[in-house]
Amino acid sequence: MRDEAKWTLGGIACGFVVVAVIVIIALVVESTVEVKPNQYAIRYGKYNMKLYPTILSEGKHTVGVSDRLITFPSNFIDVAHEEAKVLTCYTRDKTELRLSIVFQYSYVKEKLISFLLEYGHHNKIHLYITQISRDSLRDVCSQYGYSTFFNNRTYVEQAMKSNLVNDLAFMEHGVNIGFLQLKNVALPQQLMDAIEAKETALQSVTEAENDREVVLTNADTDLQTAKADKDIALVAAQAEYNSIVQTAQTTAAIDFKFWQERANAWSLIQTQLNMNGTDFLSYLRFSIVS
User: Fold this and answer.
1) Cys-Cys crosslink for 100: which of 82, 219, 234, 282, Cβ 3.0 to 4.6 Å?
2) Using CA atoms, how far apart are residues 51 and 72, in angstroms rounded to an integer?
3) Which structural domain range is residue 15 located in?
4) Above 90 in pLDDT, residue 245?
């Protein structure tokens, strides 16, 4: 009987030991947690309702059995004002613009606990920053004429980022603003149609001016051709005139010489015949008739 009691007590003791080992193993397993890549974690004691000051980074950590982790992204987070959430604003010259803007922010690790106490979890903070950024970007939009957004986009991006940093400064520099990109600027459709109509009209004017230049060039070519033809005709006429004059002068000289020689011959005959003018004329008539 004693041996049986001894074995019974021993079995109970072994059972307690086994259970204790299992419980200890379970507690150890449950108290080991893993913080995923690109995350920070704040340890919160569920029973003592305590936030522990050490910010946990990526890797495995041992925490209390009742503790849970409140996580925040450790990398840059995108805020996109585009597509269905495109930012509509009015410029200094009262022009409505539709801006597609993307920027990034990240949490300052040392400020996470105060952020959690002040603003809540990451999702709530993200919505808060998104709304503040829309107001901040609209403020910048109102400071410039619409042409600046097309002609000097880099300058506008810098102004937007600087204003966003200032507007988030009340968070005690708990977030860092990364890059900001103004991806697209769109005008209202009505204004786009008006600009397109203006461009079409300007193109028509340009084409008309080009056609005018062609007409003027062709007219000038025709004028120069006519002038050249006129000059050629004048040269030809002058040459023909000179030829006619030369021929007439030559013929006149021949005729003059002929009649001069005849006159000399008649004068000689008149002298040899000792005739006066009247008698010589009668002689000539008689000679010609004969």
Assistant:
1) 82
2) 14
3) 1-30
4) no
